[in-house]
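Researcher: Here's a chain I'd like modeled. Treat it as a single chain, no partners, no ligands.
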Amino acid sequence: MTHTFNDKRKCRHCPKLLPDQYSKGRQFCKPVVLEDGTVQNCKDDYWSAFNKEHGKEFKHIALFHKHMTKRIESLLQLKGEIVSTGLIDRFGIPLQRCLEFFKNEDSQWEYLFVKYGFQQIDSVTLKIIQHGRFF
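Model: Modeled as a single isolated chain. Structure tokens:
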């Protein structure tokens, strides 16, 4: 089958023209298997480069919460499950950067991180809880 290139549509990753016979929704060249067995795939190459550049913020957030989990675990191991806000501050756990916070049925604040959370007991005391939520 011979292809025509009247529409002059180009691949989003490389300068090759896309044939008019391809679906109008196609934005990338079809994958090609090279002689050495490797696959040249413009779509995968394009999105890999895009995600590498735009995924930095998410990696930073994930790394932050990984560190918070370690800090909460060490706080729990050293001081137990009942802790003060001053102790939380000394361990470098900023409650305002939790994944979710809300008032529970007792009108007390809960601050949830990835694996652990803090449940308010009174104005300066909190309890470390291990929730089973998935975000």
